[in-house]
Amino acid sequence: MKLLTALGVLLVLNMATSSRLVCHMTNWAQYRPSSGKFTSDNIDPFLCTHVIYAMSTINSFNELTPIEWNDDQQFTGLKRLKNINPDLKTLLSVGGTVNGISPFIAMVARAENRATFIKSSITYLRTHNFDGLNLAWEYPAHNGSPEQDKTRFTQLVSELYKAFEDDAKENKKTPLLLTANVAAFIPTIDRAYEVQKITLYLDFINVLTYDYHGHWEAATGHNSPLYSSSMDSGTHVHHNINSSISHWLVNGAPAEKLLLGFPTYGRTYHLSSSATGLGAPANGPADAGPYTRTAGFWSYYETCDYTPSANVGWIPEQQVPYATYGSSWLGYDDKRSFSSKVQYMTANNLGGAHVWTLDMDDFGGSFCSDGAYPLINHLRMSMGFPPKPTTTPAPTTTRDPIADFCRGRPNGLYENPTDKKTYFQCFQGNTYLHHCQPGLIYWDSCKCCNWP
Ligand SMILES: *[C@@H]1O[C@H](CO)[C@@H](O)[C@H](O)[C@H]1NC(C)=O
User: Fold this and answer.
1) Gene3D superfamilies annotated for this entry (predicted)?
2) I want to staple 304 with a disulfide (CB 3.0 to 4.6 A). Which of 51, 311, 367, 377 is the partner?
């Protein structure tokens, strides 16, 4: 009996540590106004296991290249986060489009182009202290050569894998992580990926389980439904998480490498009749959000300003919420839908979760009266991760004197006057409580834990 209990504890611990919570940030979120402005300095170093920095691109010489003028500064911010949480892994994402065309297409077409890209990637990632690469191979297989692009992607992935291994051996370092963001629509999966082959080489695979429905359609549908709805017809019966994940699994992807996508945003419609439910007639998007300023699309923190006055409903078949107000219709995610998706993830033994994005959760806690990162913190807790070594103050709740410790103090380590076995770390005004190893106490003279 004791042994079984011990085994159970081990299994639970193992589950928590082997599962991944991968969070994307975007380098365009820095341009959102006031409280929407987001940079790597806004990241909680203990929230996610991995942070993916989106986005970099490929130049005309086939080299990995940054996009923004201040990417270097933001990379320095990521490095600071890793100094605070040495377990945090950071990855750089490459992809997107240049003039509407994926920069991958020309690069993968020739062996020497791929070699240049691979070499430049390793140098760039090592120089800027990244732990891995994320290939955002999402809209490939156009320009009329889908079969070619499909096998060329496999070639790229296998060559990257080998080069990362060689680099690790040569430089006596941990190999760089190799990951991809991949499509969720069944026809795209079939056209774009040799599933069994690429999954051999990839450390994990983020399935983009959102954008299933949006204002480009003539009737309301949810951005990220867990299951199909009885109103779905034709190919729409596959526009849900369960269909996508089942397809990846049936095609031979190992469950433990697949990460389920959790969107911290919703998609909007403008209703064109008095009907307000799922499948109601619509003609285009609702007004753009004041911070994300993109029609058809609201961040979670923008929905927090909207839902209190809206009629909020739940779609039981699809396990997701929606909200209507006037002629606006919003299909979004909340803590409840995140919990349902975590259950699905666990039941299917998936390798964890990825979030699109950190910058669309209520990262500063100033919109939703629910603390900083309410959705991702809830996700983290639902996945069974241990509590973070943080006591980040929630601006809207009553102040805890300990959480207030670092207000106005410079970054650094401080003794905890009430418990010598612990100490505070101040980082950008937030308080992080750390514990010394058993038997040791904190000494401010060395800013370290040592024998009493
Ligand atoms: C999930 O998808 C599988 C495979 O398509 C299907 O057999 C199953 O019925 C689906 N589950 C639900 C609840 O829709």
Assistant:
1) 3.10.50.10, Chitin binding domain, Glycosidases
2) 367
